Amino acid sequence: MSAIYTTICYVLLAPLVGGLITGLDRIVTARMQSRYGPPVLQPFYDVFKLFGKANLTVNRFHSYYLVCFLVFIVMSGSLFFAGEDLLIVIFALIVADSFLVLAAYSTNSPYSCVGAQRELLQMLSAEPMMLLSAVGLYMVTGSFNVSEIASYGKPLILYLPGVFVGLVYILTIKLRKSPFDLSTSHHAHQELVKGITTEFAGPSLALIEIEHWYEMILLLGMVYLFFAFNPVVGVVAILFVYFIEVVVDNTNARVKWELMLKSAWLITIILGVGNLFVLYFVLHL
Amino acid sequence: MAFLKRSPWIFHYDGSSCNGCDIEVLACLTPMYDVERFGVINTGNPKHSDILLITGSINRQNEHVVKTIYRQMGDPKVVIAIGTCAASGGIFAECYNVLGGVDTTIPVDVYIPGCAARPEAIIDSVIQALGILEEKQKQT
Amino acid sequence: MGLHMNWILFLILFPLLPAVLLLFFRSVSIQKWIVLVASALVCAGSIGLAVTCTQAKGQYFPITSDIFNKLIVAGDIVLALVFLYVCRRLPLKRYWIPLLAIVQYAAVVWFDLSGRVPETTHYIFVDNLSVIMALVIGIVGSIIAVYTIGYMEHYHKKHPEIPDRRGKFIATTFLFFFAMYGIIFSNTITWIYFFWEITTLCSFIMIGYSRTKEAVHNSFRALWMLLVGGLAFAAAILYASSICGSVDLRQLLAMDKSVVMLPILLMSFAGINKAAQFPFAKWLLGAMVAPTPSSALLHSSTMVKAGVYIVLRCAPVLHDTAAGAMVALVGGLSFVAASALAVSQRDAKLVLAYSTIGNLGMIILCAGIGSHLTLWAAVLLIIFHALAKALMFLCVGTVEQMTGSRDIEKMHGLITRMPLLTIIMLVGIAGMFLAPFGMLISKWAVIEALATRNPAFPVIVIFGGSLMLFFWMKWMGKLIAVTGPQPRQDEGIGIEWFALTGLAVLTTLAVPLYPFVGIHMIEPLYGFSPMLNWNVIWIVGIMLGLILILPLGFFIHWKNLVHVEPYLCGANVTDTHQFMGSLGSARDWSFRNCYIDKYFSEEKLFRGALVGSIVLLILMFSMEKL
Ligand code: SF4
Asked: Which residues of C touch B71 (CB under 8 A)?
């Protein structure tokens, strides 16, 4: 039963919480740049405004991919908060991201397509670590089910420090924050205009924003799993990790895709796989 | 809807100018003036923006570009001509290929005089433009 | 029981009839009818077998008369002569190709005739794995055969320079069925060996069909590579009959591991060879010069599947041994290397070939580990891969015929030119890697099964899978780019449509059917799997529903859409594929996918994969006693 409640909570509250976190993010960012920053509710104002704007499209198909994107993001997050299998959560997330990429490809616009390629590279960089953390959580808890991982009771972070650091590293890619905001970013930049989102305007852009919130909550939920033994510690950890992301976002310039791919895979192999091997030998010897 | 007023996203185009006004527009984004306080974001993409800021005058080369960008903005939208150049062609008005101010090419909603226009004036113009934006939205 | 026996004999022997008929009837329309009727019968036969005969534990069908055995020996001799015959024009310095055939056949036939091969009556054996394989061969294979009719028609119209021997080509297809059914139902390794070499011969004929220089070259490369596998198989027969004292596969598998390890490894080696794993990947890559239906056949339901089938059979012995782990690593290496290599390929058929090698690598990986869960996943992979891969090949073949190119870059915006075909192709691609389609369910099962073990294995699958996602996605993106109004292209007509839609429907249908296959066929074979719990089935069901229903929205004409041209920094001109250059004239822009040659090109990776896999194979044999 509780699975149903948490799922409903996720579907209803994730955009709210996600929007609030984004609002705080923008204020903290502004303060770091010694600016005053927008109101906390600014992300919501933006989204509501976008819904009121004209829906510009290049062709009549590409905006619809975003609907599929939204459905699968919500599906992925719902599965996560319903305590289902972590692997299928990640796979559903991949399907969702694929729809975003397809949407951008469908526009047949140069900037969008460059963004789409870069998004693919981002997926290529980040996906191994995501799946690996699921495997790591399984090795400790003996289950892929989020509900069982969450109720495991012991601090998983102690078993999986390397995996956790790796996950935080690729979180920057997944949250599209600098230095890994290759496919699109929240700040103005001329090099690829708005990357993957270039051709989406008005309501479509609002959808992308909402999807981003859903995705963010899902990813932060994965971070929480490592600290699930104590909800307070878990929430503090989430806030801390997000704060680190903001700091990184503000102190790093965008890198090239090669550096992203290499560093992400290196971190995955050294920290993630290394951690798993150590764990395997400790558990089995 | 009031939300439009709270989140004006701008797109900045620099025509035939001396780049003076251009720099002043960017100054608005700096910590000194910080227009993000009002929810303003400099988008760099006409499709995402509500307000088109144009500095500098229109010439035969950029006339087509300005028209295209204007067309690619989603309704409701407003155009602000910043600086004397954008208003009338300014010191470039007599040049062989200059058509004149922005209004020779696309409809302009707010003019800001000055050579260069001051950041305060630019921010003020954005606030004025918001009123026009709202009116435009009501009409549609 | 007699009934089952009849089904089996029918399946094995019947395909010979159309094969012979096709050689004699030259009229195209008669050939067409022969193929249609025969394919329907083969397909029906396989389904009939599956319906009447689900033998969890397996069932022998004793054959007491020695006549069959004599026939097989005679067949071996004939085959040896055929191999020598096809090598007759080879230059002298490639003497080792016929030598490979001579050595193995001389040894096997001599052993057989001198009575050194132990007697057995258990020639035919059926269990659920054979039934599943029969279904895959019967259904996918016969659909491909039907497609072939239409394809060859176009093919010979397009290439008048190639002699029209289509009867022979389609006859080879049916000979293939004969051999495949032989492999999966035979229980003695001498019989399997006979059929095994027939598949080698068939692929040789098919690859060299066009008789161009390249085709001949590639066909001989395939021949010698596959004969190496045959040699290993022959060695397995000699060892098994002289040391283990049995050629009964069941009995061998039940023996003590230390006794049978070597013949089992030799057979696994032959399987790895036939499944085109590294270091033997080259033969399958070269096979794409053949007409597309043969590629589809080789890659999906026959040939390579015989390779993974035999490794799967050997899995109980490989389970929990160091040598088995090496087999798994060869598969794993092939999976990662082939997926990485596919990233840098522009040629659609090459991408498909590499992805086949990769997916088979995953199956070999599962078989090498050999636990119940991984075998479970392997069987699912076999089913789903056959469907989606056959579909992809047929689509690419059709595109090639209609547009004259199989360059992925040239498929840019295909959806505006050939919408129906593209949609079918999208189903195929989605079937290869996207949740909730089969391959993804299998990958999921694989990771779940491997996570309990050494982390090296899940890591291999995860990295390979990510690369796979990358190259499929960028291909998919190319297809769906909407390039504005374009002239509709002829999408190919007639009988091919039946094959394409049939496979697309099957690829999709296989997803909701997987629990049934799982419960009725795989579970009795390998036991329970986590993939069968109701939660999983529900989730897969919901996702499938979504992925089928959501695209319907594309047909809705949304209101309030404001059409504008794509953003080109304001430099748009009327043609969307041009922009206004700085000198005031319109210039073209175009857009290419990234292929990352810098890291994933063949020059960079192929040699490494070869060396790595050879080292692993040497390790595999040296670890035989561990
Ligand atoms: S108005 Fe003056 S400062 Fe502004 S662009 Fe023109 S010349 Fe430069």
From this structure: 564
Stretch C8-36: mean pLDDT: 87
User: How many CB atoms lie under 10 A from the CB of residue C255?
Assistant: 17
Averaged pLDDT score across all residues of chain C = 86
- If you count them, how many residues does chain C have? 626
What pLDDT is recorded for position A188?
Answer: 56
Mutate which: C425, C466, C572, C577, vs A, most A CBs within 10 A: C466
DSSP C295: H
pLDDT, mean of residues C403-419: 86
C332 confidence band (pLDDT: 50, 70, 90): very high
Can you tell me the distance from the alpha carbon of C265 to that of C314, in angstroms, rounded to the nearest whole number?
8
Q: Is the peptide bond before C18 cis (omega within 30 degrees of 0)?
A: no
At position C343, the amino acid (one-letter code) is: V
Tell whether B2 is covered by a domain: no
Output the DSSP codes for C89-112.
TS-GGGTHHHHHHHHHHHHHHHHH
CATH code for the domain of B33: 3.40.50.12280
For residue A229, count CB atoms less than 10 angstroms from its CB and return exposed for 0-12, middle for 13-18, buried for 19 or more: middle
Cβ–Cβ below 8 Å for B72 and C570: yes
A195 touches chain B (CB under 8 A): no
Residue C444 CA neighbour count, 13 Å, CB half: 27
Of the candidates A25, A8, A7, the residue with the CA atom closest to the CA atom of residue A175: A25
CB-closest option in A88, A102, A121 to C476 = A102
With beta carbons under 8 A apart, name residues in chain C contacting A55.
558, 560-562
C-alpha closest to that of C302 among C183, C448, C397, C475:
C183
- Give which of A26, A33, A35, A44 to mutate to test B binding, by max B Cβ within 10 Å: A35
Question: Do the Cβ atoms of A267 and C446 come closer than 8 Å?
Answer: no
> Cβ of A128 and C463 within 8 Å?
yes
Task: Please indicate if any CB of chain B lies within 8 Å of the CB of A39.
Answer: yes
Quote the domain boundaries for residue B19. 9-139
Interface of B with A in 80-139 (CB under 8 A): 137
Residue ranges per structural domain of chain C: 1-238, 319-567+600-626
A103–chain B nearest CA distance, Å: 16
Q: How far is C274 from chain A (nearest CA, A)?
A: 30
Could you report the predicted ipTM of this complex, rounded to two decimals?
A: 0.94
Task: Give the chain A residue nearest B29 (alpha carbons).
Answer: A35
Helix or strand run (H / E) with residue C126: strand C124-126
**CB-neighbour burial class of residue C258 (10 A; exposed 0-12, middle 13-18, buried 19+):** exposed
| Residue B3 included in any domain | no
